[in-house]
Write a structure and sequence with these properties.
single chain; 396 residues; alpha/beta; Metallo-beta-lactamase, Chain A; DNA Methylphosphotriester Repair Domain; seven-stranded mixed sheet; 24 strands; globular; RibonucZ/Hydroxyglut_hydro; Ada-like_dom_sf; Metallo-B-lactamas; MBL fold metallo-hydrolase; activator
């Protein structure tokens, strides 16, 4: 009787796996393909000596940080903002990181770069891959200083260039050109490959860069996509999604962000292609483990398809209902995009004479003093030809 029960249980488990996924008693979610093909795939991967690759989408709030591990080899892609820098360093230490083979700086926005500076200070780094433009900010200056101080080799991205990470590899997908007006499009995009499993990460690349990736003719198909620019309206274009056809999408954004991440339009496009989603704002750190044929997750896919509108941290469901994951209670307060943050007496908006962006005095992306212009009001900044910073959102 005991043997019969065991056979029934095993039959049930195998049936569940064939359907397309199974959540174990420990909360682990297993991706699956079809029966014999799946078994053969695992056997072939083992025979070929394929190592396990882990991709850690670290919860850094409103920002991005990804740790990739293949055997004893590690790569860090971005590091979150200043408030997450120590968290990223602690997380890497818990994963037994001693040395980073690669650090990829997708671009120089503070919510990607600050934590990189922290990691560069703490760990030995073999090579940094970073885009070929400069930024006029304090965090970028700190980044350049630590690179020079530790004499870390730095490489500019070249589309199509392949790198090895243990038994895994990755290929540069973007940027495909230069002279972008929006610096987000300088973001380094890459495709990670471990056996038959493929992961695409695009930083904050927006539609212009996404279209270039598709038109460049590279194979963009993947199992896992990290939603571009935290799920913003200007990323995850239909053209890119159709080229990738990801089974899973990971969205890294802050639970209390008021940038409109993830946006309704992006969530609609993702839902339309049938991808399963994971969200750091609702689920914390997401870890995908690839054995070269199958992907195992530390969480089950999220059922939360809610989105945010710009200027509010409130989540809006498909039925129009509103909710909060976490963060400050905004009930009864005016959080619309037209409500600009108030400046203290004597403070002024700070413009960057090079980028023609204006900032709040508290922004992490302020330019050097020699490159500043000061404005008493938002109207004055607009009249001088300046547009609002996308990080500090001086217009609310």
């Amino acid at each position: 009787m005991h043997t019969i029960k065991k056979r029934i249980i095993m039959t049930f488990l195998m049936a569940a796996m064939l359907v397309g996924g199974l959540t174990g008693l420990d909360g682990t979610y297993y991706e699956s393909r079809s029966g014999q093909q799946e078994g053969q795939g695992v056997q072939k991967a083992a025979a070929a000596g394929k190592s396990t690759m882990k991709v850690h989408y670290i919860d850094v709030g409103q920002g991005s940080a990804v740790l990739v591990q293949s055997g004893v080899h590690f790569m860090l892609i971005d590091g979150g903002d200043s408030d997450a820098s120590s968290k990223v360093v602690s997380y890497l230490k818990r994963q037994k990181v001693k040395k980073l083979d690669y650090v990829v700086v997708s671009h120089y926005d503070s919510d990607h770069l600050n934590g990189v500076v922290g990691a560069l200070n703490v760990f030995k780094v073999k090579r940094v891959i970073a885009p070929a433009y400069t930024a006029d900010s304090r965090v970028y200056e700190s980044y350049c200083n630590i690179i020079a101080q530790k004499k870390i080799a730095t490489t500019r991205p070249k589309v199509g260039k392949k790198y090895k990470l243990g038994k895994a590899r990755f290929t540069i997908l973007a940027p495909n050109s230069s002279g972008y007006v929006d610096e987000n499009n300088y973001s380094i995009a890459l495709k990670l490959v471990n056996g038959k499993n493929r992961f695409v990460i695009t930083g904050d690349a927006e539609t212009e860069s996404e279209y270039e990736m598709v038109e460049n003719g590279q194979n963009l198909s993947c199992d896992v996509y990290m939603a571009g620019h935290h799920g913003s309206a200007n990323s995850s274009s239909q053209k890119l999604l159709q080229a990738m056809k990801p089974k899973y999408t990971v969205i890294s954004c802050g639970a209390d962000n008021n940038y409109g991440h993830p946006a309704q339009s992006a969530m609609s496009r993702l839902k339309a292609i049938g991808t399963k989603i994971f969200r750091t704002d609702a689920q914390g750190t997401i870890v995908a483990t690839s054995n070269g044929s199958r992907i195992k997750w530390n969480k089950s896919p999220s059922k939360l398809w809610s989105y945010r509108e710009y200027g509010s941290s409130t989540l809006i469901g498909a039925d129009g209902s509103e909710s909060q994951i976490s963060g400050d209670d905004t009930s009864g307060s005016d959080n619309t995009a037209s409500s600009a943050p108030a400046l203290a007496n004597g403070q002024k908006y700070i413009g960057n004479v090079n980028s023609k962006k204006f900032h709040l005095p508290s922004c992490n992306g302020l330019p050097y003093e020699k490159n500043r212009a000061y404005f008493d009001s938002i109207d004055a900044a607009h009249q001088a030809g300046y547009s609002p910073c996308g990080l500090c959102r001086p217009e609310g």
